[in-house]
Every structure is written in structure tokens, then in C-alpha cells.
Structure to design on (474 residues):
């Protein structure tokens, strides 16, 4: 029998991703996060919490769905053992320690995974991988761990939007300016019929154009433009509108990480009056895609009517004025044309709808904020910023293809949030490690280049300055 003396460190390739993560990511903060969840003067010594969290991260880094399979992989994979600090003969912790003692008991009902995510974002900022000036937001759906055919139908209350009070105040001010009486306020919760899963009642039945129908969750994600680091993760049921949690999540990131946000990019689903008004209040320039929206085919859209703010009128394509009539309770101003003008108009076939003898154009009291976002998005700078929105699409693609985020592993909002947060942590630590290692390699190579005799002489030769400058830039 042949015996050899080797170290586990020598068997792990120098370019392995876990080596880079171990070099550039500091996991020592985990001890401080969980110290209040452990008993220090009773029972047996607990497993190092860093090992528990790092084992979970191994599963998300390499797409291992089962925690029992993670344990089996650690037993035979030397790189995994090295990453966790195990030796050749050390006993690996049991899968029940990860599942029962930690997730189901110790970590249940806490925000540990949110704090871990936040700390990794802060480490990315220390490595100067986040600018905090341009953020992109979008959402992706995760298929819930539930049968779409097993459900009950119930009447549920549709929650009143948070911005309703602000909108009511703006409507009353607008009506007062036009010498109209205030509207009556009646914001009783609306009852709607919806499907509730009997398997995972916290998921939502999603019905969207171009999307599959069924029970899903939504991962609302925000990334930074500089290196595509994920800075925000928030999970909702699949039937929640993308717009609802957006501004609150943006505020949380600005407050938590002290971002100086200048621009925010999003797709057309976020192009609403509320979002654009929120950008203006926060002095942030929105860059959002747009579409015409619902209208009668072959007829003029409302955007074919020019609004003149100074006169508070809309001008139709035939250059006729439409006068203000009223402001509705939901914030829409009505601008109505003169029937006599419409009957004698040569464009009435493309303008009048149905049997109406006049055209009504609705314009929201916050429409000006929407116009401003639309105008900037169409500028050259706006187009450049919006084009880079594909970075968040790439982030979602990586999370689904490489890290198993296409389906929910567990049931319940808190457990799906855990999955989304740890997936984002895995993507972030991988990005931090790879970019930091490239930077380090560049510095080493540049140092060797500058100290090579021939190039050192070339560098300081005045007649060859341009050539040496070109070498350095490359």
C-alpha cells in the first residue's frame, strides 16, 4: 500500500472559483449576525454558523437543489472541503443540521438572509464595484412549488394603494384651481375573485400577457450598472403588480447603502404616472420604455393631441382646441372637443369613436412627470442608459440557468425569499471574486511590464512616449 503526504490546499486548483471567493470575501461577519440565536452556556457546542451558511451557498453557487446532495458532494469534493475548512478525515455535518436546526428553527422568523445579502453588497462597495448612480430594476417569475389545478376560489379584498391620499389631495387642489367642488372620498377595499392554491396559499395566481398562467412568485431585483452587482431583492406573490413595491424598495437601498442615484432604468411595465412622479420627488431621472397602451385600432391615440400647459387645453390633429371640463376622482382631467368642429372636420373618421359626436381626451394630473421621463428616454443619453438595461436580463438569465432560480425549492413567502436572497448572494460573491481577481492580475502584469528593462527604457524615452502610452493602455 502506497502512502503519500499531501495537503488539501495543494490539490485545489489555483484558478478555482472557490479560491477566489475565499480570497476576496470575508465571511466572519456571520458570527456577529447569529450570536444572539445560539445558547452559549448550555448543551453541546454548536456547528460553526459560517460552515452552515457557506454550505447553503455551495448549493446555490453550483445549482445543487438538495441539501442532502450538498453533504454528499462535500464528502467527495476536495475544493468544497477546502472552502469549508474541512480536512481529509473531518466528519461533515449532517443535512438535518442545515435543515432542521437552522432554517426551520434557529433562522426561522429572522431576517438573517437579508442581513447576509446586505453585508455582501457593502463588501462589493468596499471593493469599488458599485457606483450607486445608475440602477436597473425588473422582476422575473418563479414557478411555485404548487399544482396549478389544486385551488379554491375566494373573494379577497384588493388593498388600497399607498399613494391614494397624495392623489386625493392633488385632485382636490386641481379641482379648486378650476373652481370645481372637491370630490367625495370613498376608498372602501374592493372585493375581487381570485384563485388560492391549496398547496402554497402564499403564492399568487399570475395572469399576464406572454407569461404562463399558474401559481408563481415574483423576484423584484435591482442591479447596479457598473458591474451588474445585485443591490436589491424583494419577493412578492405572482399576482402583485411590479409597480406596487418599487418606490419603497428604491428608498430602502438609498437609505441602507447611501446611494447617490442619478438615473433609474426599467421596462415599460413601470411607465406609470405614480412611478414618474416618485422619481421627480426624489430628484432622480427615470429612463423607462414606453408603449401606446390600449386604444381603438385605426383611431388617433391621445398622444396625437398636443397639450398646451399655458392655456390648459389640448390641441387636436386638425389644430382645434379641446377645453377642460372636469377632473375625475382617479386624477384624470377631461378635455372635450366642440361637436360643431368635429362634424365639419375632415379627420373625424380617424378621431371620433363609435357614435360619439365629440372626442374626449383624458390627461392625468401627474402626466407631466410621465412626459418628462418619455422625453429624456428619447434623447441620445437616455437611449444609451436604457440600452444597458439588458444587464438585469443577463442577471436573471444567470440565476435561472446556473443557480436554479427557475423553480421554487420550498413553499411559503419567507422560504422563497430565502432562496432568492441566497441566489443573489451567490451571484454577487462570484462577481466580486472574479472582477477583483482580474484587477489583481492586471496590476501584477503591469508591474512586471514596467520593470522589464526594454519596456522600462521605452517608457521613459521622450521620442517613444506615444508608443509606450499605447502599450500601457492595452
Amino acid at each position: 500500500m502506497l502512502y503519500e503526504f499531501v495537503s488539501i490546499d495543494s490539490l485545489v486548483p489555483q484558478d478555482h472559483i472557490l479560491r477566489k471567493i475565499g480570497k476576496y470575501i470575508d465571511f466572519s461577519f456571520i458570527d456577529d449576525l447569529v450570536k444572539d440565536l445560539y445558547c452559549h452556556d448550555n448543551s453541546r457546542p454548536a456547528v460553526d454558523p459560517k460552515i452552515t451558511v457557506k454550505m447553503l451557498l455551495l448549493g446555490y453557487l453550483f445549482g445543487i437543489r438538495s441539501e442532502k446532495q450538498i453533504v454528499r458532494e462535500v464528502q467527495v469534493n476536495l475544493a468544497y472541503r477546502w472552502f469549508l475548512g474541512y480536512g481529509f478525515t473531518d466528519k461533515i455535518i449532517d443535512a438535518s443540521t442545515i435543515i432542521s436546526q437552522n432554517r426551520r428553527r434557529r433562522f426561522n422568523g429572522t431576517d438573517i438572509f437579508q442581513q447576509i445579502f446586505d453585508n455582501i453588497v457593502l463588501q462589493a462597495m468596499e471593493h469599488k464595484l458599485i457606483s450607486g448612480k445608475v440602477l436597473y430594476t425588473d422582476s422575473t417569475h418563479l414557478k411555485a412549488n404548487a399544482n396549478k389545478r389544486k385551488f379554491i376560489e375566494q373573494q379577497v379584498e384588493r388593498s388600497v394603494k399607498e399613494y391614494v391620499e397624495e392623489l386625493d389631495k392633488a385632485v382636490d387642489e386641481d379641482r379648486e384651481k378650476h373652481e370645481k367642488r372637491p370630490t367625495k372620498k370613498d376608498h372602501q377595499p374592493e372585493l375581487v375573485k381570485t384563485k388560492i392554491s391549496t398547496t402554497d396559499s402564499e403564492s399568487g395566481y399570475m395572469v399576464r400577457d406572454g407569461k404562463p398562467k399558474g401559481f408563481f412568485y415574483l423576484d423584484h431585483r435591482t442591479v447596479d450598472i457598473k458591474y451588474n452587482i445585485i443591490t436589491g431583492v424583494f419577493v412578492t406573490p405572482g399576482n402583485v403588480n411590479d409597480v406596487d413595491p418599487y418606490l419603497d424598495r428604491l428608498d430602502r437601498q438609498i437609505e441602507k447603502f447611501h446611494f447617490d442615484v442619478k438615473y433609474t432604468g426599467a421596462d415599460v411595465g413601470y411607465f406609470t404616472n405614480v412611478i414618474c412622479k416618485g422619481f421627480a420627488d426624489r430628484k432622480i431621472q427615470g429612463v423607462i420604455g414606453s408603449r401606446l397602451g390600449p386604444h381603438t385600432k385605426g383611431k388617433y391615440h391621445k398622444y396625437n393631441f398636443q397639450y398646451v400647459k399655458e392655456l390648459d387645453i389640448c390641441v387636436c390633429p386638425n389644430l382645434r382646441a379641446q377645453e377642460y371640463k372636469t377632473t375625475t376622482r382617479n386624477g384624470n382631467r377631461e378635455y372635450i372637443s366642440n361637436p360643431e368642429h368635429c362634424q365639419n372636420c375632415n379627420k373625424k373618421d380617424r378621431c371620433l369613436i363609435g357614435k360619439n359626436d365629440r372626442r374626449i381626451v383624458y390627461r392625468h394630473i401627474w402626466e407631466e412627470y410621465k412626459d418628462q421621463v418619455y422625453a429624456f428616454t428619447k434623447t441620445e443619453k437616455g437611449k444609451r442608459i436604457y440600452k444597458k438595461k439588458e444587464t438585469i436580463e443577463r442577471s436573471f438569465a444567470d440565476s435561472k440557468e446556473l443557480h436554479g432560480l427557475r423553480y421554487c425549492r420550498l413553499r411559503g413567502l419567507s422560504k422563497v425569499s430565502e432562496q432568492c436572497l441566497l441566489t443573489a448572494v451567490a451571484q454577487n460573491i462570484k462577481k466580486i471574486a472574479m472582477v477583483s481577481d482580474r484587477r489583481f492580475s492586471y496590476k501584477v502584469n503591469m508591474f512586471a511590464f514596467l520593470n522589464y528593462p526594454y519596456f522600462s527604457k521605452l517608457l521613459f524615452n521622450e521620442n517613444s512616449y506615444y508608443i509606450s502610452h499605447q502599450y500601457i493602455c492595452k
The radius of gyration is 29 Å. The mean pLDDT is 85. Residues 268 and 289 are 4 Å apart (CA to CA). Residues 8-110 form one domain.
